[in-house]
Amino acid sequence: MNAVTMPRAESATDAPFFSVRDIHAYYGESYIVQGVSFDIAEGDIVALLGRNGAGKTSTLRTLARAQDPQLKSGEIWLGDLAVHTLKDYQASQSGIQFVQEDRRIIPGLTVEENLQLSQIAEPKGWPLEKIYEYFPRLAERRKQEGVTLSGGEQQMLAVARALARDIRLLLLDEPYEGLAPVIVREIEKIVAQIKELGITTIIVEQNAVAALELANRALILDMGQIVFDGTAKSVLESPELRNEYLAI
Ligand SMILES: Nc1ncnc2c1ncn2[C@@H]1O[C@H](COP(=O)(O)OP(=O)(O)O)[C@@H](O)[C@H]1O
Ligand SMILES: [Mg+2]
């Protein structure tokens, strides 16, 4: 077939991997996410940065279709899937996995039961054997109650639960939060492995340098709006951006 004469397909393959278009979201009357737009290519690691209270968590919650904040307008597309029309569980079934800051380990359940719970509904991701191969620490502690793990291990479990689901986009909210520096380095290794696996990721992190060193893209939020969209390297190299929005 002659490629030149082939009609250009108007198909999902033309759509960006993940596209956020002018989203506005509210907690009740509080207008927090104020017209955020960006596109992400498959395999991108995006550092979503900004001062405390800038709206990073709220943005991730909106993307994961959490009940709060409520999305009032705008669109979210995962390929040709209209994520803005979905509920949180449907977003998760579609491969948007959200690892929240507080990790949400279920009390009363062992490590293994926490993992099994995330595989109750289809579609499943990695089998438990593969997860245990990747996280030997979780394998050792599989019979231990999840909430009794150390902070670093709980973060591992939270990421492992996301991998136990079918995953197309990983949203990580402050994975290093509250962890000792030596543990942070362990979690950094895990995030670096996630990058090696080619899992498209948005990572929010107070430790902007750590996030930027891992990421290829950076978005900076301020007062619920994107004030920078570019390469991670350009943020690391910009004293102005670092000063103004990141305080680093
Ligand atoms: N549940 C909520 N109800 C009302 N306002 C909220 C709620 N959660 C966060 N906010 C407000 O939204 C703004 C952005 O918060 P957040 O998204 O948590 O910022 P970040 O994660 O960047 O620190 C802040 O002004 C915060 O007070
Ligand atoms: Mg936050």
TrEMBL record:
The record's listing under InterPro entries reads: AAA+_ATPase, ABC_transporter-like_ATP-bd, ABC_transporter-like_CS, BCAA_Transport_ATP-bd_LivF, P-loop_NTPase
One Gene Ontology term of the molecular function aspect: ATP hydrolysis activity
Family annotation (Gene3D superfamilies): P-loop containing nucleotide triphosphate hydrolases
Sorted alphabetically, the keyword list is: Amino-acid transport, ATP-binding, Nucleotide-binding, Transport
* SUPFAM superfamilies xref list: P-loop containing nucleoside triphosphate hydrolases (SSF52540)
Cite the ABC transporter domain residue spans from the record. 18-248
Instruction: Spell out the PROSITE patterns in the cross-references.
Output: ABC_TRANSPORTER_1 (PS00211), ABC_TRANSPORTER_2 (PS50893)
Per its UniProt record, what CDD domains does this chain match?
A: ABC_TM1139_LivF_branched
* SMART domains hit by this protein: AAA
Supply one GO BP term: L-amino acid transport
- Give the similarity note: Belongs to the ABC transporter superfamily.
This chain's protein is named Branched-chain amino acid ABC transporter ATP-binding protein
Source organism per entry reads Oceanibaculum indicum P24
